[in-house]
Amino acid sequence: MISNLDEIQNIFFIGVAGSGMSALAQYLKGAGKEVAGSDRYFLPNVPNETKEKLEAEGIRCFLQNGEGITPNTDLVVVSTAIEDTVPEVQKTKQLGIPIIKRSELLALIAQSKKTIAVGGTSGKSTTAAMLYEILEQGGLQPGIISGAGLTSLIKEGKIGNAKMGKGEWLVIEADESDGSIVQYKPEIGLLLNMDKDHKELDTLMEIFTTFKANSKKFIVNQSHTLSKQLSQNIAFDFSLDVNSGAGYVATDFEQQGFIVRFKINDVPFQLNTVGQHNMENALAAVAVANQIGVALTTCADALKNYQGIYRRHQVLGKKDGVWVIDDYAHNPAKCAASIRACQPVASKVIAWFQPHGYGPTNFLRHDFVQEIAAVLRPQDEIWMSEIFYAGGTAEKTISAGDLINDLAALGKPAFFVANRGDLLEAVRPHLTQDCVLLLMGARDPSLEFFATSVWEEV
């Protein structure tokens, strides 16, 4: 088994176009490794933006037929979605090349730096991006490995989800959904929250308890009932409650359109984004940065210029009084927070959601219904299209229409349009001169293009 990065030079990624895989590929290329990869979305004579950006970084891209794996390959990396029956995996085994999971490789990378691992069921990508920007502003030249592209890096022509920093600090997302978070032994572990998402709460508590044990310093959200139970030292922690005793407290929240203002330990902050949840994400990032030497005023300066991340309340524009916003929200807490964040922007919010995965949707059915029902104002609406199916052996025993029926039974204005291609025609009579059309969903790589098409045609 590979024990450190110095043992490998030529690395091949199966499924390199995925956000998690492409991030590691770019990071390792920046670290001087020879990197290549394949993906099922790489097709002959078909343009692919991710492929083009990877190749621009010097990462060779191949069709998913095995041709890119050779005897010179030192290591093959697979995601949890890649099964042993994939021909490329079979060829790798025939050549005797070591195979590791993406999470195992990330753990190896984390060993090579002073790592800050951002954990929690919501807000990881945003908090990691904010923390990266703060450390960059503070002159620490950090690296980042994220699940989403930072707008500041995308504007440089990159995918934006990774950068090999010259400094000693590395910011990573630590994923609890597949349990891989327990593999990391960071200098600082950060726990944002703990909500039912893929796993039951008792299982999540076990996972995050191990995460705490593996972290030299552990910082938690004292505003969250479950996460605060894992506090290592309340002076490290952050909270929205001035009476909590936490070392970092946010107060005086206000939102005006697409700008939020607040104070952290009496220092004024401003973000060009929406929602109290983003104030909480910023508070978490500031708590970490300040403890490694970045002044609160420097943190404030960095966040004032924070440009956001890909598909996190991404404002596509406004036409005839209708704002169109694209968001990655995909679990009950995130969907509710996303809707709530849009409510100060307009008098009506029409939220559309495409659930992903039949198993997760069935598991979270009650939670989706309760969270969304609780946040909707009388004038707001919730729309859904059918569940995104990514393949595999899932039992299709639930429909997004079932969630809509549950919401309608609670008296909520809820509408089901099975084919999302029919959404705009159906929703158009419901649009007003002062509303937000919020598009939510994850995992489906075509959602970006769907959102763009809605914006163009609205």
Automatic annotation (TrEMBL):
User: What keywords does the record list, in alphabetical order?
Assistant: ATP-binding, Cell cycle, Cell division, Cell shape, Cell wall biogenesis/degradation, Ligase, Nucleotide-binding, Peptidoglycan synthesis
Q: Name one GO molecular function term.
A: ATP binding
InterPro entries associated with the record: Mur-like_cat_sf, Mur_ligase_C, Mur_ligase_C_dom_sf, Mur_ligase_cen, Mur_ligase_N, MurCDEF_pg_biosynth
A single GO BP term for this record reads: regulation of cell shape
**Ranges for the Mur ligase central domain?**
118-289
Origin: domain of life: Bacteria
Q: Where is the Mur ligase C-terminal domain?
A: 311-443
Where in this chain does the record put each Mur ligase N-terminal catalytic domain?
Answer: 11-113
Its protein name is Mur ligase domain-containing protein
- Organism listed in the record: Paraflavisolibacter caeni
